[in-house]
Design a protein that fits this description.
The structure is a single chain. By secondary structure, the protein is an alpha+beta fold. Among the domains are: about 100 residues, Roll (PH-domain like), CATH 2.30.29.30; about 80 residues, Structure-specific recognition protein (SSRP1) (PH-domain like), CATH 2.30.29; about 130 residues, PH-domain like, CATH 2.30.29.150; about 80 residues, PH-domain like (Roll). The protein contains 18 helices and 31 strands. The strands form 7 sheets. It has an 8-stranded mixed β-sheet. Strands 18-17-16-15-21-20-19-24 form an 8-stranded mixed β-sheet, with helices on one face. It is elongated.
């Protein structure tokens, strides 16, 4: 027979709710680990007194009773597992696993039996229901009635808050059955009563959650938070963990108390009690107990008179009363030397502490994540800047936590810590791990942009050389945008029509020549490149070498038919998804084979590009340039005809034919938008000029035109 038995997805009944976890039975005892809180219940084999197997709502359940009266209930077993459990109990615990069924008659009268911390309502020999007395928050009595009130359970969808028992009167003298019932309940109930004096009191402590300043009164079984508006009573049994965390400024300390169940303020639940202390604040403390009681109760962990830092005194007293160790940061040290990392969570800035067995974030909202509940972590780009990154944690239950705005200098330390803890990193690279991917990511965007600009500059140089070659061969200027200072008067006069029309004398020509360079430079820089650049991108040489395919595309082309044959009728989308899954699952050695093929294809492409840039590219570019030149000439001729028609209608007869032929024609982008307005303004100016210049003498205008 095996020495251990393990069961997954077992539910433990605690205060009316079912908490899932893992149950392990061994020779030493029974261990249950709560999946939600990580709390471990350990029952020694020597403490077990009785084991009961019974049918419950979730299948079958196991109830264990200990010698000191505690009851533990575990549900979620299958009926077939009874024999295995029964044999294990006989062999290792020397107990008979008894089978007892619950009574389902539906009667509401019976007998109440108190056993340990359990109230059992029985009909005959069969129990109807059981109430753990630790769930009782208050017990009140009436004439023949006892009322039990229960703690509210936030994890349960429906909570039972009150049960009333009618106790019939008896003929026995001197014994009140109602009072006897109530005393049995109160002796085991979790009723908080501030009887007697507090052991010690800490005045005006700064509390972050719940926010405010509170007096903390320490009682033997609970602590009492007394504030100006709210009071809280926290039993020590609800304290799950204690944390003592140094602030990043090294001048303050956080003391964090993890609670389960949480304390409530209206509809708000506080799972963590966070106190903030200054390291410089000291206190002298005297316990409200004599020295013998202190020694007997705390066994040297506390003394009657103590002094020291306030945070040390609070943490020391809490550790002794709760009987739990205090968790402090481990050996992690950030970039600035602090034991925490500044980050943001849910739009609030705080501190993330990497611990030896988990992460804790303070303070709003506080979050504690254990390593054993983490599925994987992820290092992601910052959403707004490359100066920071995001640290994502996803738990096995599917909950995701994103800690953003972490300085990129913290990456190395955090990655080494996560790697040392052997947590699964989702975006780990192939060879260098996350470091390689982060090195590329950590660089600013300017580096990648510079590389892109360098490539564009090279392409621009090649286009400019080709343009010069084509202009030398044809004897005409075709690329005005690349040589703005060496152009003829055509382009400038295209936009100087208003200026030329305003002067009818020969002096106007010299003035117009002085204005040409400024307007010509503006036209070339602002408007011409915008038209030419998209044209160069649109023209693609069919003779140019094709870009090489990646390793994945090479593999996909070779494997496409095989995937189709293995999955008949598969769609293109599903085929792509299936190929991605196969590629992801492929071994590293097979991927390296395709990487080598892709590298060979890239070398061949670079070689072909060199040959193409030397020979074939210049010839093909000249051919394309000549085609563009013909199209441009056709547009110019069309624009010239339209301009002549407009000029004849505007009475500009003083212009010589030579000037009309030397005047440039508008390109397409100016003809459509500016033609009508420029023509109208030209017409008005010419009419005014004619009215002013024709009456005095026609000989002067004729001589001016000569």
């Amino acid at each position: 027979m095996a020495d251990t038995l393990e069961f997954n997805e077992i539910y433990q009944e605690v205060k009316g709710s079912m908490n899932d976890g893992r149950l392990r039975l061994s020779r030493q005892g029974v261990i249950f680990k709560n999946s939600k809180t990580g709390k471990v219940d350990n029952i020694q084999a020597s403490e077990l007194a009785e084991g009961v197997w019974r049918r419950v709502a979730l299948g079958h359940g196991l109830k264990l009773l200990t010698k000191n009266g505690h009851v533990y209930k575990y549900d979620g077993f299958r009926e077939s597992e009874f024999d295995k459990l029964s044999d294990f109990f006989k062999a290792h615990y020397r107990l008979e696993l008894a089978e007892k069924d619950l009574c389902v008659k539906g009667w509401n009268w019976g007998t109440v039996r108190f056993g340990g911390q359990l109230l059992s309502f029985d009909i005959g020999e069969q129990p109807v229901f059981e109430i753990p007395l630790s769930n009782v928050s208050q017990c009140t009595t009436g004439k023949n009635e006892v009322t039990l009130e229960f703690h509210q359970n936030d994890d349960a969808e429906v909570s039972l808050m009150e049960v009333r028992f009618y106790v019939p009167p008896t003929q026995e003298d001197g014994v009140d059955p109602v009072e006897a019932f109530a005393q049995n309940v109160l002796s085991k109930a979790d009723v908080i009563q501030a009887t007697g004096d507090a052991i010690c009191i800490f005045r005006e402590l700064q509390c972050l959650t719940p926010r405010g300043r509170y007096d903390i009164r320490i009682y033997p079984t609970f602590l009492h938070l007394h504030g100006k508006t709210f009071d809280y009573k926290i039993p020590y049994t609800t304290v799950l963990r204690l944390f003592l965390l140094p602030h990043k400024d090294q001048r303050q300390m956080f003391f964090v108390i993890s609670l389960d169940p949480p304390i409530k303020q209206g509809q708000t639940r506080y799972h963590f009690l966070i106190l903030l202390f200054s390291k410089d604040e000291d206190i002298s403390l005297t316990l409200n107990m004599n020295e013998e009681e202190v020694e007997k109760r705390f066994e040297g962990r506390l003394t009657k008179n103590m002094s020291g830092s306030l945070y040390e005194m609070v943490s020391r007293v809490m550790k002794a009363l709760v009987n739990r160790k205090i968790t402090v940061p481990g050996n992690f040290q950030g970039h600035s030397g602090a034991q925490c990392i500044t980050c943001s969570y849910k739009a609030s800035s705080g501190l993330l502490y990497p611990l030896e067995r988990g992460f804790i974030y303070v303070h709003k909202p506080p979050v504690h994540i254990r390593f054993d509940e983490i599925s994987f972590v992820n290092f992601a780009r910052g959403t707004t800047t490359t100066r920071s990154f995001d640290f994502e944690i996803e738990t096995k239950q599917g909950t995701q936590y994103t800690f953003s705005s972490i300085e990129r200098e913290e990456y190395g330390k955090l990655f080494d810590f996560v790697n040392a803890k052997k947590l699964n990193i989702k975006n780990r690279g192939l060879k260098e791990g996350m470091k390689q991917s982060y090195d590329e990511y950590a660089d600013s965007d300017e580096d990648q942009h510079d590389a892109y600009l360098e490539r564009m500059k090279e392409e621009g140089k090649i286009r400019e050389e080709n343009a010069n070659d084509s202009s030398d061969g044809s004897g005409e200027e075709t690329d005005e945008s690349f040589n703005p200072g060496e152009e003829d008067d055509d382009v400038a006069e295209e936009f100087d029509s208003n200026a030329s029309a305003s002067s009818s004398s020969g002096d106007g020509d010299s003035d117009r020549d002085e204005k040409k360079p400024a307007k010509k430079a503006k036209i070339v820089k602002d408007r011409k490149p915008r038209k030419k650049q998209p044209e160069s991108k649109k023209g693609k040489d069919p003779n140019a070498p094709k870009r090489p395919m990646s390793a994945y595309m090479l593999w996909l082309n070779a494997s496409r038919e095989k995937i189709k044959s293995d999955h008949p009728g598969i769609s293109i989308t599903d085929l792509s998804k299936k190929a991605g899954e196969l590629w992801k699952a492929m071994s590293k050695e097979k991927k390296e084979e395709w990487d080598r093929k892709a590298e060979d294809a890239r070398r061949d492409y670079e070689k072909a590009m060199k040959e193409y840039s030397v020979g074939g590219k210049s010839e093909s570019s000249k051919t394309e340039r000549s085609k563009k030149k013909k199209k441009k000439q056709e547009k110019q001729m069309k624009g010239k005809a339209e301009k002549k028609g407009a000029a004849s209608r505007s009475l500009s007869s003083t212009k010589s034919p030579a000037k009309n032929t030397s005047e440039s024609f508008k390109s397409k982008e100016f003809v459509s938008s500016d033609e009508s307005s420029s023509a109208e303004s030209k017409k008005e100016d010419s009419e005014e000029e004619g009215a002013a210049s024709l009456p005095p003498s026609s000989e002067e205008s004729a001589s001016g035109s000569d």
